[in-house]
What we know:
The complex is a heterodimer. Chain A is an all-alpha fold. Chain A contains 11 helices and no strands. The longest helix of chain A has 30 residues. Chain B is mainly alpha-helical. The longest helix of chain B is centred in the middle third of the chain and has 30 residues. Chain B is globular and about 80 Å long. The interface between A and B is large, with 44 and 42 residues.
Amino acid sequence: MTFLQQTVNALWLGSVYSLFALGYALVFSVLGVLNLAHSAVFMWGAYLGWLAATQMNLPLPVAGLIAILGAGLIGVLLDIIAFAPLRKRNAPRISQLISSLGVSLILVKLAQIIFSAQPQFFTLNSSLSQSIPKLPFKITVIQGTIFVISILSMILLRLLIRHTRSGKAIRAIAMDSQTAALFGVPVESFYRFVFFLSGVLAGTAGLLYGLAFNNVLPFMGDSIALKGLTVIVIGGLGNIEGAVIGGFVIAGLEIASIAFGSSTYRDAIIFLLLILVLLFRPQGLMGEKTVSRV
Amino acid sequence: MQIIWDFFADIGLTQSVFQFMLVNIILALSIFITLYAGIFSLANIGFMAIGAYAGVISTQTFGLPLWAGILVGMIITGTSAYFLGLPVLRLQDIYLAIATIGFGEIVRIMILNFDSLLSVISGKTIILTGNALGIKGIPKITQTWHLLVFIFLALLILHRLGNSRYGRAMRALRDDEQIASGMGINIVKMKSAMFVLSAILAGAAGVFSGHLTRIISPGVFNFARVVDTLAFAVLGGTTTWAGPVVGAAILTAIPELARPLKAYNQIFNGIVLLLVIVYLPNGVADPKLWGKIIRKIKQRKQ
Lengths: 294, 302
């Protein structure tokens, strides 16, 4: 395949990775905790979309909306169950990581019990999986749509965080939650809102990923969970712009390693990169602020 | 004696379940050691995999006896832990957790491709790890008493260690690294020693379990296994060595005792992780918790 074609592949895949990693990064930047149930929400986003589209026969855009909002609600639930009680007690960050792992186990197994471990498929209109004509490279309608939706979501998130009052409050909390509370910011409500946003991002990414490969599985979050971790580490933990760029970097690396014929070591290369970045540039490849690691 | 075994077998705790419980206890002790010293490492299953393959290859390909296989497994995991620890232990909590998750995945992928890699390098077809298929038909030569003796020795060492200046140094390290360093504790050496000790236990657990399950493959040593092991230590608590022992025993036994639960095993583990970390942060085997309960019962009697 040509270089152009590979680049196009990396771009649409990378947009999904970035979207997913954004949710990780958002929670980390505001609350300073790692939400390991993020990939379970991703998987539930895909299942909710599948449920609405194939079992309830809703049109795809409506089904998608249901999936995305549902995933957002799961995010809120996650905060209420796994994070808020520990936050109240001022428990160490690691405790919150462990409790999120617990919820992740429950969510994945629940999906397996309800939907079985067999893969489920969307019934897609065949015109969706055809290439868009008159382009110098191949991209199917669905891949193109995924790319556009991902980029739009990222722009929306940026507008929300940079240019609204709520965004300002979230940034204030991320900087110093106690001072923000003193200035009358309802910190707890905004934490919940951040988890809602993070759930929406995970759900959107899961739905798009499930549509792109037309394959929905209880374990579909496993591999992207680790890739997402690598993405935010490369971008600098809690760095929102970094997460976006990191997603494209990882997708590019993946596509490149397949192109050069070492697809078996694809994941090993990614995890090696993860460890190397952690060791030599824990602030991420484009981060500038110093992060305490000692 | 037979009557006791029969009773346990009747309620679902057969000898093989008991043996797995013992292997899980070794694993739980392995993660306990690092947690006790404030090192949040999730590399245990990676080390278990290295140990399992090193041990099984020693006994199967090279025909060594089990004890030698265990020794080889422990030496190889200990050495790899030392070298991994040199760079990785500079990281802390979440950063260390992420790095060690990455390590576990790398180990799995390396084992998956080990034979092809060796064959390419040497130019001959070499079959050691069996790639994705793993190694099959391993004789079941791990005996219950092997495990019991091993755990006894491990606990003895941990107990002695806990009461020595190393134990105090570990507790200081967990509470505040900077103050510990100010007190003259060599943090780097201390952490490295605990990391190696933890890996050695995980490696031994790997060799034992390889000779119990009779088959090892890269897929067995996945992230779900890491979470299970973490659940043992979290349920029991990490204030004393009794915590991981109790945690592993409970979480291995419950799905067997309550058969309907078995299908929901992971949900159960998830709920345990969640509830314990939220409501009993020191675990169910916390001496203070039991002291409190006993005091309350006594008060009620008066």
